[in-house]
Each structure stands twice: as structure tokens, then as C-alpha cells.
Amino acid sequence: MADERETLTYELFGTSVRDLAQQVVDSGYEPDVILSIARGGLGLGMGLGYALDVKNLSAVNVEFYTGVDERLDVPIMLPPTPDVVDLTGLKVLIADDVADTGKTLEVVRDFCADHVLEARTAVIYEKPWTVIHPEYVWRRTDRWIDFPWSVQPPLVRRSRPEQ
User: Fold this and answer.
1) Tens digits of per-residue pLDDT, 14-34?
2) Residue 163 in domain
3) ω before 75 within 30° of 0 (cis)?
4) Residue at 87 is within a domain
5) Strand 118-126 to strand 57-67: parallel, antiparallel, or no bridges (unpaired)?
6) Which residue intervals define the domain Phosphoribosyltransferase in the entry (predicted)?
């Protein structure tokens, strides 16, 4: 059925965080910093930080999706971006909720590439058509995903300047 959806509950989210953290531990990778992609990767980054005992957390805001299955031509990193000096020589774990097209992860990985010792990626979901295949994946699906934090509409609509 074309409109079947993958539903992530808050309980399953907790399970996914622990399972992903266990994958990282089992691989022997010890990140110095967890770089979360806002907004979807923020919860995952926080959870991984606690599970992996990493206190150095950072975030980057990338705009790509503008609605359900609607996106910009290319992802855009929004300011403020982390200072690359703060990432230089570190092992970074990039966290996001989903590798759909993979272009957001690609932009962030490329941002880190020339500065960090090593960058790996962790996502809750991976789609089969993504251009980036994360090292750590909880589940693979080709369905639209209902995340617990975005399945309901916002309580308010903020006006946005015309672009």
C-alpha cells in the first residue's frame, strides 16, 4: 500500500538510541564529539551523548525539507555553524533522524571532512535511495516516517520572511 507509514513512538525512539549507541560501542569507535543535525537529529544526539558518555555535543542547522516530501534544490547550512577549529583533529559522530536523500548528511560530512580526524554517521532510519550510507542505522525503510515530535502540526505558525 502506497500510503503505509513507518511510525516511530517515543518508546521506540528510546530503543533506537540505545541500539545505535550499542552499534557504536561494538564497532570500537569512540567519538570525541557528537554533531547533531537540527532539528531531527537533536534528540538522537542528546541520547547518544548520554549513552556513549560524550559530553561534547554540538549542532548544525541544515534547511532542506520545506514540507511533506517538499524540499529545496540543495540543503543549506544555516548560521551559526560550529567553528571548524573546535572540531579539528577530533573523531565526530554525526547524528540525524533519517538518511532520506542523504544530501543533508553529505553537506555536513563534507563540512567536517578537511578538519576532523574521522567522521561517522548515525541515523534512526535509512532509505534505500540515499546517497550516503551511514555507518550506524537502526532501521531501513522506504516508507514515509511519522516521528513522534513532528507527526502533529505545530501549536503556532510562525511567519517566515519571503525568500
Assistant:
1) 999 999 999 999 999 999 999
2) no
3) no
4) yes
5) unpaired
6) 13-151
β-sheet bridge partners, residue 6: 145
Give the count of domains, the chain.
1
Q: What pLDDT sits at residue 160?
A: 65
Q: Which of 7-11, 74-78, 149-153 has the lowest mean pLDDT?
A: 74-78
CB-based contact 31:121 (threshold 8 Å): no
Q: What is the identity of the amino acid at 145? A: I
Q: CA torsion angle for 141, 74, 120, 25 (degrees, to 10)?
A: -40
Separation between Cα atoms, residue 59 and residue 80, nearest integer Å = 9
Who's near 61: CB < 8 A, 6+ residues apart? 37, 38, 39, 77, 78
Nearest to 38, CA basis, from 58, 21, 11 = 58
Comparing 124 with 81, which gets the higher pLDDT? 124
Question: Phi then psi for 71, rounded to 5 degrees?
Answer: -145, 165
Containing domain of residue 34, as a range? 7-146
CATH number of the domain within which 127 lies? 3.40.50.2020
Residue 130 C-alpha cell reads as 540515499
pTM for the full predicted model:
0.86
